[in-house]
Write a structure and sequence with these properties.
Length: about 400
């Protein structure tokens, strides 16, 4: 061993004698200098611009000044919220928008309240459609770019249940075979989740709600077609984009009713009803994963047609597509969140990006809120976006 070490030292000394240390230093410095001079340099801080996604947080339209200040303090410039009761008026929307603007926040998205008469083709459908049309006109005049909505016959929240995640946090699981008559029974008593034995239930099909009944897919397609043909031309003229959120959970049957927004083919069919960017969707990479699709393939399809009008940015792991999956922290799960953000930036998507579905944690439990969970999601999304925008500035995207 001693001889090997001495021989190594001698060989190293001979090598050093053959080379000029000064020449090595100059050569290395020249290489580094040359590379630095040819690479583009990103300018920091890297922030959203008119052609990038806009990271947003949710808020109540009745938020206090303190609530709005808190949102702003964490670097968020955009918010979304549920809209007022129909019909919206320009004066009411301006009142809300101006209140947030005074605190440096832009309202980028409002959700329509439940449009049951339209979904179920009830007697008041045409009146409700007129209210939506008037609301879209008001939104355009007030400067609200996005109006989001849902179209569920019934949302099977009865299949959700909570389980313990990393560090005792709360994950949200879904199992289509585990349907509970009372959705409240799915809730855990923090911080203890129920045991497997406590959660064990025989699969059963839940009865339809008496106030809803049952609907076939074609009935619902007829109803949404009637709705979209009436409102999309109004939205387009008003300069407003509508974003339909896909079914979540994306189950085939919910209390006896089929669902029309639970598959990629369904989403394609929706876009074909009225060919307009105002007839768009909320691209949810989590739901895209839940149904067994590649979120990037879904993103490309929607972006090619300019139909991404809102984004939900979250992650999950999938056991059985559409039937059994687990919502986890955004840094876990099957979705490559970096690739999703990279493609949104590359496509110059410029509307809201909501890092939603925060996981339960001890801090939020203590303060009676979900704000800490949202901040984690926000920071994760902001870090990825800044990384992608940096690569873009350096010409490496």
């Amino acid at each position: 061993m001693g001889n090997d070490r001495r021989n190594f030292i001698k060989q190293t000394a001979s090598l050093a004698a053959c080379l000029s240390i000064g020449d090595i230093s100059r050569s290395s410095a020249t290489t580094v200098y040359s590379k630095a001079s040819t690479d583009k340099k990103a300018k920091w801080p890297v922030t959203e611009s008119k052609d990038t996604p806009k990271i947003i947080l949710n808020s109540s339209a009745n938020a206090s000044t303190a609530n709005m200040r808190l949102i702003k303090q964490f670097g968020v410039d955009y918010v979304l919220m549920g809209g007022p009761q129909l019909p919206w008026t320009e004066s009411r929307l301006r009142e809300i928008i101006e209140k947030f603007k005074a605190e440096g926040l832009s309202v980028i998205n409002m959700m329509l309240p439940t449009i049951s008469d339209i979904i179920y083709a009830r007697a008041g459908r045409d009146e409700q459609i007129k209210n939506v049309q008037d609301s879209l006109v008001a939104a355009g005049k007030a400067g609200l770019p996005i109006v989001e909505y849902n179209f569920y016959a019934h949302r099977l929240t009865e299949g959700y249940y909570d389980i313990v995640g990393r560090g005792g946090s709360q994950y949200l699981a879904f199992d289509y075979t585990r349907k509970m008559e009372n959705p409240a029974d799915n809730k855990w008593t923090y911080p203890r989740a129920r045991s497997t034995e406590e959660m064990a239930l025989s699969p059963k099909e839940l009865q339809p709600k008496p106030n809803i009944g049952t609907y076939t897919k074609e009935q619902l397609w007829d109803n949404i077609t009637y709705f979209l043909k009436a409102v999309i031309p109004v939205a387009e003229k008003a300069g407003v984009r509508m974003a339909l959120h896909p079914n979540d959970p994306p189950v085939p049957l919910s209390r006896g009713s089929q669902q029309i927004m639970g598959s990629f083919n369904d989403w394609k069919r929706l876009l074909a009803i009225v060919n307009s960017p105002s007839n768009g969707m909320t691209f949810d990479c989590g739901v895209s994963n839940e149904i067994g699709e590649d979120p990037l393939v879904v993103l490309d399809y929607l972006a090619d047609r300019d139909r991404i009008n809102h984004v939900h940015f979250r992650n999950c792991t999938v056991e059985t597509p559409s039937l059994k999956y687990l919502e986890v922290f955004p840094d876990q799960g099957n979705v490559n969140m970096f690739s999703v953000m990279r493609e949104l930036v590359r496509r110059k998507y410029k509307y809201g990006l909501f890092a939603e579905h925060p996981r339960g944690n001890d801090l939020d439990q203590k303060i009676g809120s979900d704000f800490a969970g949202y901040l984690f999601n926000l920071a994760h999304a902001r870090g990825i976006m800044q990384s992608v925008l940096t690569l873009q500035q350096e010409g490496k995207l």
